[in-house]
Design a protein that fits this description.
About 25% of the residues lie in helices and about 15% in strands. It is of the alpha+beta class and about 230 residues long.
Length: about 230
């Protein structure tokens, strides 16, 4: 079992012969974020791509480009939405104090992602390069929540998925990189925020819910053959 330590750097050769990146190396960098719990940080990594088909020397890794693993609209900084005891207005004031760096589309970029499960199916050809503190990605957005708002990969799919991220995000081949797509994502986020703000005004203590007996009594069998609800 590999015991990953922060700033450990590994190389994984791209073996897909149909890929234009065949023979290059994915550089895998163990990292952590102080805002995440220990069990999540255990599997946090960032990634780079070698320039050619040779394993980069430790001192060369810092100059390689980080691979973007997630792109989110700037309004994602308000996620997760606050609980019942926090108003969105107060929540927004707190989040607005934190500096983020959206691009021309209003997107935020993340490079930090989780490999889960960490110790299952670790590639046997993972090559250790060394341990060194690298410069952090410029203008990286670290999701405030470790649950559901960050990238996640499995070892068995990591070669394909990391290259896919590089193509979609670093090279901007994704359809999301258009003014129309960005505006659509913005509207979706604004609708979600408005929905939450409406929920804040509901006093759930005054809502009467039917108990189980009332629900069972209200069910009526109407006969006929059972049908598959997905057909």
């Amino acid at each position: 079992m590999v015991k990953f330590k922060d700033n450990d750097i590994y190389a994984l050769k791209i073996k897909d012969k149909d890929s234009k990146y065949y023979g290059k190396y994915i550089i895998i960098i163990k990292c952590s974020y102080e805002g995440y719990p220990k069990h999540i940080n255990k599997g946090m990594f960032r990634f780079k791509l070698s320039k050619d088909k040779s394993i980069p020397k430790l001192e060369e890794v810092n100059n390689l480009e980080y691979i973007i693993t997630q792109v989110q609209h700037e309004l994602m900084k308000y996620m997760p939405l606050p609980g019942a005891n926090v108003s969105f207005k107060d929540h927004k004031k707190k989040r607005d104090k934190i500096k983020v760096y959206p691009d021309e589309y209003g997107y935020l970029y993340s490079c930090i992602s989780e490999i889960f499960p960490l110790n299952k199916n670790i590639p046997k050809d993972l090559i250790y390069i060394g341990n060194v503190v690298l410069d952090l990605p410029k203008y990286e957005y670290i999701p405030f929540s470790d649950y559901g708002y960050k990238g996640m990969f499995k070892w068995e799919n990591i070669e394909k998925e990391i290259i896919n991220c590089y193509e979609l995000f670093n090279l901007e081949k994704s359809k999301m990189f258009s003014k129309e797509a960005a505006e659509s994502r913005k509207r979706e986020m604004l609708d979600l925020i408005e929905f939450h703000k409406k929920l804040e005004k509901i006093d759930f203590s005054k809502i009467k819910f039917a108990d189980e007996e009332e629900i069972e009594d209200s069910l009526t069998y109407v006969g006929g053959e059972d049908k598959d609800p997905f057909n």
